[in-house]
Fold this sequence. Notes:
heterodimer, A: about 180 residues, alpha/beta, Pyruvate-ferredoxin Oxidoreductase, domain 3, B: about 375 residues, 7-stranded mixed sheet, 13 helices, about 20% strand, globular
Amino acid sequence: MVEIRFHGRGGQGAFTAARLLGIAATLFEHRYALAYPSFGPERRGSPVLGFTRIDDRKIADRSIITQCDVVVILDDTLLDAQAVNGLRAGGLLLVNTTRNDLQIFFPDNIRTVLVNATLLAQQYLGRPITNTAMLGALAAVSDVVKLHSLFAAVEQEMKGTIAGKNAVLLEHTYITCGGKLR
Amino acid sequence: MLEQKAFLSGNEAVAAAVRLARPHVIAAYPITPQTTVIERLAEMVEEQSLKAEYLHVESEHSALSACIGASAVGARTFTASSSQGLLYMAECLHYASGGRFPVVMMNANRSLALPWNIYGDQRDSLSLLDCGWIQAYAEDAQESFDLIIQAYAIAEHPDVLTPMMINLDGFVITHTYELVSLPAQQDVDAFLPPFQTTNKMDLDHPMSLGFTAGPAFNQSFKQLQHLAMMAAVTVIDEVEARFRQFFGRHYPGLLETMHCNDAEFILVTLGSVAGTVRPVIEKLRSLGERVGFVRIRYMRPFPDAEIRKALAGSKAVGVLEKDISFGFEGTVFTNVNSALMRTKVVPPRLRNFIGGLGGKDIAAADIEQIFERMKSTDDGESVEFI
């Protein structure tokens, strides 16, 4: 089982990222997944979480994810010591940031990958919405999900030109993070 | 059979099932965590992928009243609610069951005020066990979907004619996305023919509905209502068998058992927390512990005989539930206990665990601790909060 937690602010699409990842894993990789947001009231701009559990067998346990293998941070103003709570040793911390002075927060026993997804999102979407970009980064630096399943999920869930732009953003972030196109 | 896989929340699965069941009238008022059900249905009606009268009424009381009125002219109806909204319907719940109007409702199980809280527990529906509605509790989105389709077949059955409430744990099921199999419309149509009833306002066959019955006859109506609810036990089995033939998925009736045959310690629960219990049972079994598990699927009609059979021979039984009847114990425990007392062999120890109130998480470690408590022979408290 792989457990992933997304951190964002209401409106940035953290839960959409969790859901797109679940769609990619289930409908396009034939695995099982649960995806859910941090429960409770929804407020634009306030910190929100998205969670995805992926496994090769049906997932019964619906208790809250307290330990995870990957933390994805869409907004670096959310990056504090708490953001890596529960991240397992050897886990992956994937951060969207335009800054270069964040190292003080990172524990030694995790792998940290920084990506300037905001820059890429501005370039390809014209908006600083980085959820699909960060999924591209995730596909590049881990074996959680394959790029082609993310393309399929985006194509299914988004409409027309938005889907096209997000697919391009996905691919460029994937390549920027070292992903190889076959 | 044609089917389509989709990645849906419990709420979306319910809306998809309602569309396939072809209700004539949907009346609803939004309340978290149920709101997305009626939002999706409103979109379907707007885009005409569902041909139904959609009534956005001013309250839950009106929502159920509208469904009762529509059902009284022979319409298939749907409403959804949660928490305080369900309580606001309380008066109409009895009107629907007493009038034998087979309304189908989805309830998102959620805590009750005060302190105000929108998170999940089961105090709302469990406090309304006596209102004459069939009550089912789902474990995941697929079961929620399947229960909605089955609910119309059960509730509208001429031997039953009783409204049915499908309960989904708030957020944990309603807002969690997962894989759901959606059957094709023609298969649902074949499984679920249009609602037909003689219990309706009909100019060709006029009859009295919504009438007064004094002391001479009133109790007879209540006895008939009770018999109809008891008849649902058989109808649920028949509907599930037919459902399996049509759609391949098998459901075990009023309750589900896991490893109960040789179990010394059995945990009884209901709703989504069952999913957290399952891997714990597998783990403890692999360590050689004789543990078992019962998931209650229907609280009304209550699985009286099934409970006795499942728990016979165990050393200790624990009931884990997300509600409490203040000043006594959990309502599920009271029901389980009452079923057991009708047998001469009552398990030596019965423990009541209350957890998950107001959305408090119940983790696998809590379940393991519950099994440890069940092994202890001390008297303990009559109710143990976890």
